[in-house]
Amino acid sequence: MRxxxxxxxxxxxxxxxxxxxxGNLKSNPDExxxxxxxxxxDLAYAQTYYPKSKTILYLNNLAxxxxxxxxxTKKEDKNRLVHFFKTEVPLVVYExxxxxxxxxxxxxxxxxxxxxxxxNDDKFIRLVLGDYYVNMSIENIKKGDAVxxxxxxxxWGSHIGITINNIRVGFYNYILGFLGxxxxxxxxxxxxxxxxxxxxxxxxHGAFWESVRGIWIHGAMEIFAIVVEAMAGFMxxxxxxxxxxxxxxxxxxxxxxxxxxxxxSTFPFTIxxxxxxxxxxxxxxxxxxxxxxxxxxxxxxIISFYYFVYPKIVYQKMKLEMENELVK
Length: 328
What we know:
- The structure is a single chain.
- The chain is mostly helical.
- It folds into 2 domains: 3-73; 83-316, no CATH class.
- It contains 13 helices and no strands.
- The chain has helices spanning 3-22, 29-49, 54-72, 80-95, 97-120, 122-129, 131-142, 155-175, 182-204, 208-241, 248-265, 267-279, 289-326.
- Helix 5 crosses helix 6 (122-129).
- It is elongated, with a radius of gyration of 24 Å.
């Protein structure tokens, strides 16, 4: 069926459903439930046969309004902060999950560029990291303490200073998404290439494992958070470049509202990473392997679960509640 015929055939049904959603959800529940089922079928059909069509955006938006209408009738958690992290953020992550995949794809490519460039040009590492840092790291490796750089200053001072710096980097990573996402690509490129060069530096001087078991104690959450912040920046840029069925201003408003939630959601992980860097990483060379590796896997597992697994769990739960509500 041609898309024009598909729209003509179903337009009246969609308009009817939209008018009811914008009105009273509980009026004519049987009819509303039937319309909702048809809407989901139409959305699935459009996604299959018209994958690049604006019809999908319209139907997705209509489904989102349904979800929001039902969701607003439910009692929120008493703790607004708990509700934000427990429900709001996961649902936004699930809806915009493709941007998380984009961010990770860019991250992996940029890290690879850093590694490959370092392998093929001895000057590249110094160009990226600076002579002072490279010389200091090499000297620490020779002394048998690859992560000595993390032992300077007080625990508390390091925690606060590192956390503030990481939030600052994350803010630029996010807010430069206003430049159509190009600013976010630049910040992610810069940090990812530095990471690739940094790790190759330790590999080249025979201290790769020491660097991994030390640096990634805090790096698992810190680096993952940077990628998630890039996701937020891409969402912001996409809302400007690809407004879809909305006006550009309406799209930007939605983009700011949703992407800001993603950006703010990284704060606990960034703070936790700063705490680990200030209080734990400095003792990594004194830890048994099982403990340092256990911390790395735990921190990486927590943040990975929150952004990759938990959003689908919340979405499936809310979808079931929505369907149950519609058939009441």
